[in-house]
């Protein structure tokens, strides 16, 4: 992949199918233009593949659930796969700082926590004058 010009959004790699490329575009468009660099492309590519693959897993689970005699062994297998895929997707989103948790501003929270901790400690200290 060629280096990007500053302020441009990366196009999806050719090896992604249409659904995966749509996830790529949606993800890239949801972040500032310079958010993704060449170093994050492998993570982003895997994120797109897994996210697009969840639709297949969900369709399969719906078919199993709607059948007259659902195969519980198959249902369990696909729910386990979905759970594993979701964990990896969440981890990739965090690594690329897509999830709100990872883009959370710790500096705005820390003073509140520190203040509460100081107030609790001050309440426990016995003052010799009062």
What key attributes describe this structure?
flat; 130 residues; mainly alpha; 0% strand
Walk me through what this model shows.
62% of the residues lie in helices and 0% in strands. It has 130 residues and is an all-alpha fold. The protein has one domain (18-124). The longest helix is centred in the middle third of the chain and has 26 residues, at 41-66.
- Structural class by secondary-structure content: mainly alpha
> Describe the biggest sheet?
none
| Mean pLDDT figure | 83
Unreliable spans = none
Topology:
Elements lengths: L17 H12 L11 H26 L5 H24 L10 H19 L6
Summarize the structure.
This protein has 130 residues and is mainly alpha-helical. It contains four helices and no strands. Helix 2 packs antiparallel against helix 3.
């Amino acid at each position: 992949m060629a280096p990007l010009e500053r302020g441009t959004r990366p196009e999806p790699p050719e090896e992604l199918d249409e659904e995966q490329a749509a996830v790529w575009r949606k993800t890239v468009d949801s972040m500032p233009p310079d958010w993704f660099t060449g170093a994050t492309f492998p993570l982003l590519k895997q994120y797109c593949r897994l996210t697009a693959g969840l639709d297949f897993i969900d369709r399969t689970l719906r078919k199993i659930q709607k059948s007259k005699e659902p195969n519980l062994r198959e249902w369990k297998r696909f729910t386990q796969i979905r759970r594993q895929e979701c964990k990896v997707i969440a981890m990739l989103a965090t690594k690329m700082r897509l999830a709100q948790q990872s883009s959370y501003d710790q500096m705005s929270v820390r003073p509140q926590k520190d203040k509460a901790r100081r107030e609790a400690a001050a309440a426990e200290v016995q003052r010799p004058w009062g």
